[in-house]
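Subject: Protein record for review, amino acid sequence with backbone structure tokens
Concerning: The relation between a protein's sequence and the shape of its backbone.
How to read it: Take the token row as a discrete description of the fold.
Enclosed: The protein record, placed directly beneath this head.
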Amino acid sequence: MQNLVLPAELLNSFKKNLYLNGGGEMGQLTRSFDWSKNILGTPENWPQSLLTTLSIILNSKYPMFLWWGPELIQFYNDAYRPSLGQDGKHPKALGQRAEECWPEIWPIIKPLIDQVLADGEAVWSEDQLIPIYRNNRLEDVYWTFGYSKVCDESGKPAGVLVVCNETTEKIKTYQKLAESYEKDHKLNSQLCEVNNQLANANNALKLNINRLAESKAELHHTIDKLAESETRFRELMLRAPVAMVIFNGPDFVIELINNKALEYCGRTADQLLNLPAFTVLPEAKGQGFEELLENVFKTGNSYVANEHPVTIKRNGEVETTWLNFIYEPIRDIYGNVAKVMMVFTEVTEQVNARKAIERAEEELRHAVNSAELCTWYINAETREFLPSRGLKELFNYYPDEEMSYDAAINLITAGYREKVLMAIEDAISTDEAFNMEFPIIGFHDKKLRWLRATGK
């Protein structure tokens, strides 16, 4: 049978559709972008290495960003999109030169990019402050990120892949905890909830290979290119800043495991590789993981878990830990689930911290409600109002009735209401004591009462 040769235009179009398929909002924006006006030109003329890398990025649910070529032209996926904020750099950041997009942090990131492109050594940083312009202002933003080189077909560095996660909320929470403990251990009624859901680690690679009956030679060529892509992906996975494992077949044989995952398990690669997971990790049985894996193999549906309790034996000790993880199916060329990739992050420290905060908040509420004096507490940031039973009685509320800050202010007579509000705001902003007399109208009996209130 004579082999069929596809015209170059049709072949290039096929390559574009194969590698730029899917990807949600950013996949659609990438496909609809007018690349003919960009220095990279149209996707039909892009190198195979760029198309392969973009296929990985657009179809991943973990935040990823790519700079390509001498001008560092930009690409990113849906998972990275929220970090750009509102009314900021999105969507014009797509296809834009890095120096034009990031003038506010260019002196910080340019040396890192140059370092990766010069010597090929990956760069890793945790919880680093890199302010960026978003939401119509320059914001302090903290990042945990890794910069890795991406080589072209000649083996030379052609781009920089950024695998990142914004940790701003985590850092802010730690800062507020430190401030709280420094102020005579006076706990706020509600600290900002610890946001420890590290963006659901999802670094899945979905290979969609369609048989081309018209051109067997071209099909073999495509498969070879996909094999090269998988090799590059495995190299990226081993260097990834999050824990990753690939389970092969219904026996869940550990085909690949990176250093982050080995560190969590407290085992070596020789103890785990090419062996059934629940044989070499017997303590994992009975905790739901085996059933969840079986369901992913049967249904082909991903599974995401946040703050999942896990009992594990590592370094000779049995520990209770907490994980954020995702099971992502990997399909063969026929669309059947052949493997499952697990991406996870240990959040034990953050969960324990949040539980400590919740216990402290409950103790504070109990202390306030049990006090015999007429006391009240206002959170300076959220304005949440915490009155004691005595204060409710003074304002003529029933003990079980809800009494909000705004409701309490509205009971102050009109002639004093603004003065009291200004005095409270001055106390919050200047750290000066609040001390004044004012009249109120009882909530139920509508009687006039004069009060003296002090606070700091």
Q: What stands out?
A: DSSP finds 15 helices and 16 strands in the chain. Residues 15 and 23 are 16 Å apart (CA to CA).
